[in-house]
Design goal:
363 residues; alpha+beta
Length: 363
């Protein structure tokens, strides 16, 4: 008989003789694997500086730090992209200064500004006049940066704040596009705002399109920024989850090692039949790997088909899904922890000869 057929027969005998032990071990390993998958995906996407609510999933940024293209240099191409993509809500130019993060609308400016002024009422002051927008007067409205500010410095110009707003979910300020153009201010980045939050597939697809259309820019999704800039977040909750998963896997490995000790008669028979220590170790290691693969695929299916959709509703980290690297890392952790406990026990029994095993049975 080849090794695989022996392993299959051996595993079948184990399940039939120790059904309850097998069910407990499989369930514990499955829960542990789901926990490790959860922590692995979450740690790969969140950071100390960015909470889940900070992830702007409806936009892609065109970084202008190297190309330094003014609005007049790029507005026609941005307008064309906007008109030819129904999923795009608007395109903005953004200036990041020490005083504020200021935004202007490059597409449908009057409509977007009118929508804002209709939706929100100022805490103080008033909104732009039509003349301000047309002529590009040195004015802006502040949004959530404090009513104490009277003006903001943009380049060599002082931009007067005509009105202050603080609506939910919006920060800093808006400025007429012509004000930016007239003062020769170059936006630090251009933002493509989409009507809905982007899935992982959509973000990758749109990013690829933008890289072809705008090769001058560095195209960045919010997740690109998180992965590049943010350190891993190891908060108390995740540390506890990791420790729970590790303890559960090690406990299951100890349980399987105990099962091997219960099956000492099988080891004795293998030894009488002339099985070498290496062949015997290979049989039981293959059996362990089959068990680990069985529980891993069970856990992966539960995580992929059920839990990931639930987690998306409560944690934006899971909106970006997971990569195959997450899966490989998780399976590698499970195998490493199991072998760390199981290998010494297996080596101990496999090195004994039939006489020594028989003496241990009698003793």
């Amino acid at each position: 008989m080849n090794t695989l057929s022996i392993v299959a027969k051996n595993l079948k005998n184990f399940i039939s003789k120790h059904t309850l032990v097998f069910i407990i071990m499989l369930a514990a390993l499955t829960v542990s694997t789901i926990t490790i998958l959860y922590v692995t995906v979450k740690l790969d996407t969140l950071s100390d500086g960015l909470s889940a609510g900070d992830l702007e999933l409806d936009q892609i940024r065109l970084k202008n730090t190297e190309s330094l293209l003014a609005i007049d240099d790029i507005s026609d191409r941005l307008q064309s992209y906007y008109e030819n993509n129904s999923s795009v809500l608007c395109v903005q130019g953004c200036i990041d200064t020490s005083d504020a993060y200021v935004t202007c609308f490059i597409t449908d400016e009057k409509k977007n500004l009118a929508d804002f002024s209709e939706k929100y009422k100022p805490i103080s002051g008033s909104f732009f006049s039509d003349e301000d927008i047309e002529n590009g007067n040195n004015v802006m409205v502040s949004v959530g940066i404090g009513t104490e500010l009277k003006s903001v410095s943009l380049g060599d110009e002082e931009i007067k704040i005509t009105g202050s707003y603080a609506p939910d979910g919006i920060s800093n300020g808006y400025i007429p596009k012509n004000t930016v153009v007239n003062n020769g201010i170059i936006p630090d980045e251009y933002k493509i705002i989409y009507s809905d939050e982007l899935s992982v597939r959509q973000a990758k697809e749109y990013k690829g399109q933008l890289e072809e259309l705008f090769p001058e820019f560095e195209i960045e999704t919010r997740m690109d920024y998180v992965l590049k800039e943010a350190p891993l977040m190891l908060d108390f909750e995740n540390v506890c989850l990791i420790l729970m998963a590790v303890v559960a896997v090690i406990s299951c490995a100890y349980l399987y090692a105990y099962v091997i000790q219960m099956r000492i008669n099988e080891i004795y028979i293998f030894k009488l039949c002339g099985a070498s220590a290496a062949r015997l170790a290979r049989i039981f290691l293959c059996e362990l790997l089959l068990l680990l693969m069985l529980q891993f695929f069970t856990a992966f299916i539960i995580f992929r088909l059920c839990l990931i959709n639930i987690l998306k509703k409560y944690d934006f980290a899971f909106t970006y899904g997971y990569s195959w690297i997450h899966t490989v890392i998780t399976f590698g952790i499970i195998i490493a922890l199991s072998l760390m406990v199981f290998a010494p026990v297996l080596i101990y029994y496999c090195r004994k000869n039939a006489v020594e095993i028989r003496q241990q049975q009698k003793g």
